[in-house]
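Q: Could you fold this chain for me?
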Amino acid sequence: MTVEAVIALGANLGDPVRTITQALRDLADLPETEVLGVSSLYRTAPHQATGPDFINAVARVTTRLSPHGLLLALQAQEQRAGRERPYPNAPRTLDLDLIFHGDAAIHTSDLTLPHPRWRERAFVLVPLAEIWPERVPAVDLQAVQHQAIEKLP
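A: Sure. Below is the predicted structure, expressed as C-alpha coordinates.
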Protein backbone atom coordinates (compact mmCIF):
# COMPACT_ATOMS: atom_id res chain seq x y z
CA MET A 1 0.00 0.00 0.00
CA THR A 2 1.30 3.47 -0.87
CA VAL A 3 1.10 6.22 1.75
CA GLU A 4 2.20 9.83 1.98
CA ALA A 5 4.96 10.55 4.43
CA VAL A 6 6.70 13.69 5.64
CA ILE A 7 10.40 13.87 6.45
CA ALA A 8 12.05 16.80 8.21
CA LEU A 9 15.73 17.37 7.41
CA GLY A 10 18.26 19.31 9.44
CA ALA A 11 22.03 19.77 9.70
CA ASN A 12 24.35 22.08 11.60
CA LEU A 13 27.82 20.58 11.15
CA GLY A 14 30.11 20.62 8.12
CA ASP A 15 28.48 22.24 5.09
CA PRO A 16 24.80 21.99 6.06
CA VAL A 17 23.42 23.54 2.86
CA ARG A 18 25.27 21.03 0.72
CA THR A 19 24.37 18.18 3.07
CA ILE A 20 20.63 18.98 3.05
CA THR A 21 20.64 19.49 -0.72
CA GLN A 22 22.28 16.09 -1.19
CA ALA A 23 19.97 14.43 1.33
CA LEU A 24 16.95 15.73 -0.57
CA ARG A 25 18.34 14.22 -3.78
CA ASP A 26 19.05 10.95 -1.95
CA LEU A 27 15.41 10.68 -0.81
CA ALA A 28 14.49 10.16 -4.46
CA ASP A 29 16.72 7.07 -4.49
CA LEU A 30 14.94 5.35 -1.61
CA PRO A 31 13.26 2.12 -2.72
CA GLU A 32 9.55 2.27 -3.47
CA THR A 33 9.53 5.98 -2.66
CA GLU A 34 8.75 9.04 -4.78
CA VAL A 35 9.34 12.66 -3.77
CA LEU A 36 6.19 14.75 -4.20
CA GLY A 37 7.48 18.06 -2.92
CA VAL A 38 10.43 19.71 -1.24
CA SER A 39 10.38 22.95 0.73
CA SER A 40 12.83 25.79 0.50
CA LEU A 41 15.85 25.72 2.79
CA TYR A 42 15.54 27.56 6.10
CA ARG A 43 18.08 28.73 8.69
CA THR A 44 17.11 28.31 12.34
CA ALA A 45 18.80 28.63 15.69
CA PRO A 46 19.17 25.32 17.53
CA HIS A 47 15.87 24.40 19.22
CA GLN A 48 16.40 22.17 22.24
CA ALA A 49 19.84 21.43 20.78
CA THR A 50 23.34 22.91 20.74
CA GLY A 51 25.86 24.11 18.19
CA PRO A 52 25.69 26.44 15.20
CA ASP A 53 22.51 27.37 13.33
CA PHE A 54 20.70 24.61 11.47
CA ILE A 55 19.71 24.40 7.86
CA ASN A 56 16.29 22.75 7.62
CA ALA A 57 13.85 21.57 4.98
CA VAL A 58 10.83 19.28 4.70
CA ALA A 59 10.06 16.70 2.04
CA ARG A 60 6.71 15.11 1.19
CA VAL A 61 6.94 11.65 -0.33
CA THR A 62 4.82 8.67 -1.27
CA THR A 63 6.22 5.32 -0.22
CA ARG A 64 5.43 1.65 -0.07
CA LEU A 65 7.98 1.22 2.73
CA SER A 66 6.56 0.44 6.15
CA PRO A 67 7.05 3.08 8.87
CA HIS A 68 9.95 1.10 10.36
CA GLY A 69 11.35 0.32 6.90
CA LEU A 70 11.39 4.02 6.04
CA LEU A 71 12.92 4.85 9.42
CA LEU A 72 15.74 2.36 8.82
CA ALA A 73 16.36 3.79 5.34
CA LEU A 74 16.55 7.31 6.79
CA GLN A 75 18.91 6.21 9.55
CA ALA A 76 21.17 4.56 6.97
CA GLN A 77 21.21 7.83 5.04
CA GLU A 78 22.19 9.70 8.23
CA GLN A 79 25.04 7.25 8.84
CA ARG A 80 26.35 7.70 5.29
CA ALA A 81 26.43 11.45 6.00
CA GLY A 82 28.57 10.85 9.11
CA ARG A 83 25.87 11.20 11.75
CA GLU A 84 27.05 10.46 15.28
CA ARG A 85 24.88 10.37 18.39
CA PRO A 86 27.27 11.09 21.30
CA TYR A 87 24.46 12.55 23.46
CA PRO A 88 20.85 13.69 23.02
CA ASN A 89 20.42 16.75 20.81
CA ALA A 90 24.11 16.86 19.88
CA PRO A 91 25.11 18.89 16.81
CA ARG A 92 24.72 16.75 13.71
CA THR A 93 25.88 16.38 10.15
CA LEU A 94 22.39 15.19 9.15
CA ASP A 95 19.14 14.60 10.99
CA LEU A 96 16.20 12.99 9.20
CA ASP A 97 12.98 12.84 11.22
CA LEU A 98 9.95 10.91 10.07
CA ILE A 99 7.05 13.23 10.92
CA PHE A 100 4.09 11.35 9.39
CA HIS A 101 3.62 8.04 7.65
CA GLY A 102 0.08 8.12 6.32
CA ASP A 103 -2.27 8.08 9.31
CA ALA A 104 -0.05 5.74 11.31
CA ALA A 105 -0.18 6.12 15.07
CA ILE A 106 2.83 4.28 16.47
CA HIS A 107 4.58 4.41 19.82
CA THR A 108 7.53 2.03 20.09
CA SER A 109 10.97 2.38 21.63
CA ASP A 110 12.46 3.51 18.32
CA LEU A 111 9.58 5.26 16.55
CA THR A 112 6.69 7.51 17.50
CA LEU A 113 4.26 8.68 14.83
CA PRO A 114 3.15 11.28 14.28
CA HIS A 115 6.41 12.79 15.53
CA PRO A 116 5.63 13.88 19.09
CA ARG A 117 7.03 17.42 18.79
CA TRP A 118 6.21 18.40 15.20
CA ARG A 119 3.69 21.02 16.30
CA GLU A 120 6.25 22.71 18.58
CA ARG A 121 8.89 23.41 15.95
CA ALA A 122 8.91 26.26 13.47
CA PHE A 123 11.62 24.41 11.51
CA VAL A 124 9.03 21.72 10.74
CA LEU A 125 5.82 23.76 10.56
CA VAL A 126 6.99 26.61 8.31
CA PRO A 127 8.56 24.43 5.57
CA LEU A 128 5.66 21.97 5.82
CA ALA A 129 3.16 24.80 5.39
CA GLU A 130 5.04 25.82 2.25
CA ILE A 131 4.56 22.44 0.55
CA TRP A 132 1.40 21.09 2.24
CA PRO A 133 -0.46 24.04 3.77
CA GLU A 134 -3.66 22.11 4.55
CA ARG A 135 -1.62 19.84 6.89
CA VAL A 136 -0.55 22.73 9.15
CA PRO A 137 -3.19 24.35 11.37
CA ALA A 138 -2.88 28.15 11.54
CA VAL A 139 -3.02 27.98 15.33
CA ASP A 140 0.14 25.83 15.32
CA LEU A 141 2.00 28.31 13.12
CA GLN A 142 0.94 31.12 15.41
CA ALA A 143 2.19 29.22 18.46
CA VAL A 144 5.76 29.03 17.07
CA GLN A 145 5.98 32.53 15.60
CA HIS A 146 8.48 33.51 18.32
CA GLN A 147 11.01 30.97 16.98
CA ALA A 148 13.39 32.63 14.56
CA ILE A 149 13.37 31.08 11.09
CA GLU A 150 14.82 32.55 7.89
CA LYS A 151 14.05 31.31 4.39
CA LEU A 152 17.26 31.08 2.37
CA PRO A 153 17.37 32.67 -1.09
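A (continued): DSSP finds four helices and eight strands in the chain.
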